[in-house]
């Protein structure tokens, strides 16, 4: 059965690649060399707009373990070393309240048994384990303590190789089912064939469609650009809260329903146990505690290649011939900050002959034309855009806005053939429905003074000084730097073909998983543009 499934997966993968090649031959995808393109706004399909419905996880928890200490919420992530992969999972159940006895992390071993596919799982790696707590003020009786979180670094792996593995404690015995993953290829000529990108997932029926479609397209790597479980939208009693300032660090009370993270981790295992998944924080991951701790669940539940950066909130890694830079919008980013200084060093050390492609990702977009969150990250853009441009970043991925948008190549709000393509993919499912209104529509432009950086402080809002929008904070039509925008649930896939060409495709949930809606070849020009 396993062999048959593997053969079927390879056949489907080859079929998808064949379709892509046919598109290339038939010239159905434009390239950025043909741009800039006239802005396109896809009319809203109101048949998909309605009440967002959460999955009924409280009544029927997805993939709840059947035996005590059986591994759950299994996930893979890349390390800073091409030959290593992190394996993470949770054993035991979370506990609610103060009058509890936390699980002992030392009571269950952290073991991964692995080997090359079909050659036996004869190798063994061990790691560490821990728990975390989410504490609330005013003696809230619903304080949360997690199950045991396990983290193992599997080393000595060969590039572009299929492995099989089990994780757990073989002495109980309590081991997971057998899972499979493929390591990243070697740079500089090889690339992960398909990189899935999505943000704003949540745990809704839309999320289910997004993840099932994404898995059917067989990505080798997944990027989640923030707003993951939306646990902070739920009060400590598990009901959906009815307040708007849930994720402000300044809030005196940060209610969040941490079991939502466990439900989300169990559901996401259909992807994360087989596809290395890299995450970056969004505002819904802040989850301020009574003692002013933030990002606790985010920091404990995911493994990061953060040795060089010293932070889980910003880091970088390689995947074949692509260097990814993951930036933090909710940690200091000014030129005197640790993050900025690390970014300078990281970009300076990128060898474009080894990793020709340079991709950056963070949560709030700089070039979104939607009314919600319009120019909200302007301070971050002012501080960091020049540095990214100088080092020749090719593509930027963002979330935050519950819609899809792709820019023309742009720098400092000006069309620039050497600027990156900015892509917002923030509508993976979320819990708050789609964003529909645009800032350039009559009556929708916010006052610049009402767009401060809510998390880092300060305001960088200003009116444009040149171009068609000179003297105004918003355009009165879709800006020329916005190439394509659409309010639909979905995700995207990046396929890097070689050192200069990468195919980007946007997939909507209302279509078949194999049907893309917005496709373009992003073309690097290393002889023309700085790097």
From TrEMBL:
Domain (Purple acid phosphatase N-terminal): residue spans on this chain: 71-183
Position of the signal peptide: 1-27
A single GO molecular function term of this UniProt record: metal ion binding
This protein's record includes keyword Signal: yes
EC number, as in UniProt: 3.1.3.2
EC primary class: hydrolase
Domain Purple acid phosphatase C-terminal per the UniProt entry, residue ranges: 472-515
Cofactor(s) it depends on: Fe cation; Zn(2+)
UniProt keyword list: Glycoprotein, Hydrolase, Iron, Signal, Zinc
Location of the Calcineurin-like phosphoesterase domain: 202-401
Catalytic activity: a phosphate monoester + H2O = an alcohol + phosphate
Superkingdom: Eukaryota
Pfam families documented for this protein: Metallophos, Metallophos_C, Pur_ac_phosph_N
Keyword presence, Zinc: yes
Family (UniProt): Belongs to the metallophosphoesterase superfamily. Purple acid phosphatase family.
PANTHER family in the record: ACID PHOSPHATASE RELATED (PTHR22953), PURPLE ACID PHOSPHATASE 13 (PTHR22953:SF15)
Name used for this protein in its record: Purple acid phosphatase
The organism of origin for this protein: Gossypium harknessii
Record lineage: Eukaryota, Viridiplantae, Streptophyta, Embryophyta, Tracheophyta
């Amino acid at each position: 059965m396993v062999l048959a499934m593997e053969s079927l997966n390879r056949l489907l993968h080859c079929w998808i690649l064949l379709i892509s090649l046919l598109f290339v031959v038939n010239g159905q995808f434009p390239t950025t060399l043909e741009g800039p393109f006239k802005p396109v706004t896809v009319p809203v399909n109101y048949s998909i707009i309605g009440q967002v419905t959460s999955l009924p996880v409280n009544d029927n928890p997805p993939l709840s373990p059947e035996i005590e200490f059986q591994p759950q919420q299994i996930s893979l992530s890349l390390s800073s070393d091409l030959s290593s992969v992190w394996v993470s999972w949770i054993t035991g159940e979370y506990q609610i309240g103060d009058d509890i006895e936390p699980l002992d992390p030392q009571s269950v071993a952290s073991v991964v048994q692995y080997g090359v596919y079909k050659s036996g799982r004869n190798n063994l790696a061990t790691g560490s384990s821990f728990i975390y707590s989410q504490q609330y003020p005013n003696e809230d009786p619903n304080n949360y303590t997690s199950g045991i979180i396990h983290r193992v670094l599997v080393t000595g792996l060969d590039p572009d190789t299929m492995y099989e593995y089990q994780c757990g404690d073989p002495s109980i015995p309590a081991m997971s089912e057998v899972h499979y993953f493929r390591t990243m290829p070697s740079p500089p000529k090889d690339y992960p064939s398909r990189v899935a990108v999505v943000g704003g997932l949540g745990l809704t029926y839309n999320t289910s469609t997004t993840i099932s479609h994404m898995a059917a397209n067989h990505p080798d790597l997944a990027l989640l650009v923030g707003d993951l479980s939306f646990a902070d939208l739920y009060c400590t009693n598990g009901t959906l809260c009815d307040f708007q300032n849930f994720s402000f660090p300044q809030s005196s009370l940060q209610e969040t329903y941490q079991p939502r993270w466990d439900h989300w981790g169990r559901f996401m295992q259909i992807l994360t146990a087989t596809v290395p998944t890299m995450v970056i924080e969004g505002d819904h991951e802040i989850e301020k505690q009574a003692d002013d701790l933030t990002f606790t669940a985010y920091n404990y539940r995911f493994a990061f290649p953060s040795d060089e950066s010293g932070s889980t909130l910003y880091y970088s890694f390689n995947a074949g011939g692509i260097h990814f830079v993951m930036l933090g919008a909710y940690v200091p980013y000014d030129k005197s900050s640790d993050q900025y200084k690390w970014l300078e060093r990281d970009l300076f050390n990128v060898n474009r002959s080894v990793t020709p492609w340079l991709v950056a990702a963070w949560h709030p977009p700089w070039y979104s034309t939607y009314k919600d969150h319009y120019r909200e990250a302007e301070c971050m853009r002012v501080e960091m855009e020049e540095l990214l441009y100088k080092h020749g970043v090719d593509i930027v991925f963002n979330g935050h806005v519950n819609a899809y948008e792709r820019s023309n190549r742009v720098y400092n709000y000006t069309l620039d053939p050497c600027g990156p393509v900015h892509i917002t993919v923030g509508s993976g499912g979320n819990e708050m429905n789609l964003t529909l209104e645009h800032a350039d529509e009559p009556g929708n432009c916010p006052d610049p003074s009402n767009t401060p950086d809510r998390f880092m402080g300060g305001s960088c809002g200003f009116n444009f000084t040149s171009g068609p929008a000179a003297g105004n904070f918003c355009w009165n039509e879709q800006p020329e730097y916005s190439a394509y925008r659409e309010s639909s649930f979905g995700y995207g896939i990046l396929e890097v073909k070689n050192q200069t060409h990468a195919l980007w495709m946007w997939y909507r949930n209302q279509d078949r998983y194999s049907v893309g809606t917005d496709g373009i070849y992003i073309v690097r020009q290393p002889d023309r543009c700085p790097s």
